[in-house]
Design brief:
Radius of gyration of chain B: 16 Å
Distance between the termini of chain B: 35 Å
Structural class of chain B: alpha+beta
Number of strands of chain A: 6
Structural class of chain A: alpha/beta
Largest sheet of chain A: 6 strands, mixed
Oligomer: heterodimer
Strand order of the largest sheet of chain A: 1-2-3-4-5-6
Radius of gyration of chain A: 14 Å
Shape of chain B: globular
Largest sheet of chain B: 6 strands, antiparallel
Helix content of chain A: 25-40%
Strand content of chain B: 25-35%
Helix content of chain B: 40-55%
Strand content of chain A: 25-35%
Distance between the termini of chain A: 30 Å
Number of strands of chain B: 6
CATH topology of chain A: Transcription Regulator spoIIAA
Number of helices of chain B: 7
Chain lengths: 127, 185
């Protein structure tokens, strides 16, 4: 199993995992031209990661803006995490939002509605 | 695009906006163009407004321009990718901003968009939130590019109805005008 490493751009987040720590991190903005295409390798990586016995994962989001097609992809990703949580895997999601931007808390909160998943909403001074 | 920036500014739909254009672009709306113009818009807004306002206007700008990128019926191929053509304007108006996009659509898109815009404008604030969440759940299960959420997001974030119009051009084509007003005070 290899780590996933996607460098960030102005419109796509940096995505990096640390298998030793059991963590994956998203950092930046997300409004790619084709969000499905961009996030497919991430879904694949997460699925493969959970194929490992006793895999547990902490997902850290530091996303200060995402467009609507990305929000659909985040829902897909959270559903994968939810399914694995239901199978007994340990999953924690930390959504970091900008203290100065109400919308960034609101859009984070909305992602987790109806999701059966452990999540924390964490205010950050400066994303 | 059948019209120039000047002609579009003179069109009835845009002409009655009482404000200064801080951004005007007409041409190929590639992802790079969206990012570049978006940077210009953000730095202009940053001079006056807190991050929350800048992000709100930016988010609406992205949804409106990416609609052109994906759905304009005038497409240009470049390096194996396809980009939509259209126009985007940002006006500084009394108490806020008004964003306008214009692009060519087909007869079929015209029927779809008219229904969609009327539906979204008929919802109140609470309904809009609920509709957005329900719709996103449903769309997450499909393979769609994400269409259908953009308009709801524009109305949800701006807190105002969208203003829209269709102008027939030749060969069963229409110009689709879309306007969103964001009050900052």
């Amino acid at each position: 199993m290899e780590n996933i490493t996607i460098e960030g751009t102005k419109y796509t987040p940096e995505i990096k995992s640390d298998i030793r720590k059991g963590e994956i991190k998203f950092y930046g903005s997300s409004y790619p031209e084709n969000a499905n295409e961009f996030y497919q390798p991430v879904y694949d990586w997460v699925e493969r990661y959970f194929d490992q016995k006793d895999a547990s994962l902490v997902v850290n989001f530091y996303i200060y803006y995402f467009n609507t097609s990305t929000s659909k992809c985040f829902m897909n990703l959270l559903e994968i995490l939810e399914n694995n949580h239901k199978k007994g895997k340990k999953v924690t999601v930390n959504w970091h939002y900008s203290e100065d931007d109400e919308d960034s808390l609101d859009s984070g909160e909305k992602l987790f509605m109806e999701m059966d998943i452990n999540f924390k909403l964490i205010p950050v001074n400066n994303i | 695009m059948q019209k120039t920036v000047d002609e579009l500014l003179q069109s009835a739909f845009i002409h009655d906006i009482k404000g200064n254009a801080i951004l005007a672009f007409n041409g190929v709306i590639s992802q790079d163009a969206i990012v570049g113009l978006g940077d210009v818009l953000r730095s202009e807004l940053h001079l006056t407004y807190p991050l929350s306002v800048v992000n709100k206007i930016f988010a609406i700008y992205i949804e409106m321009t990416q609609n052109i990128l994906h759905y304009s019926s005038e497409q240009v191929d470049c390096n194996g990718k396809s980009f939509g053509k259209g126009a985007v304007f940002v006006f500084e108006i009394m108490g806020g901003y008004e964003l306008v996009t214009v692009n060519v659509i087909s007869e079929k898109q015209h029927r779809y968009l008219e229904k969609k815009c009327n539906l979204i404008n008929s919802l109140n604030k609470e309904d809009i939130k609920e509709f957005y969440l329900k719709r996103r759940r449903k769309i997450a299960e499909t393979e769609s590019k994400g269409a259908g959420l953009g308009f709801i997001d524009i109305v949800r974030r701006s807190g105002n109805q969208v203003i829209f119009d269709f102008e027939p051009v030749d060969n069963d084509k229409f110009l689709f005008y879309l306007r969103s007003k964001i009050l900052t005070e």
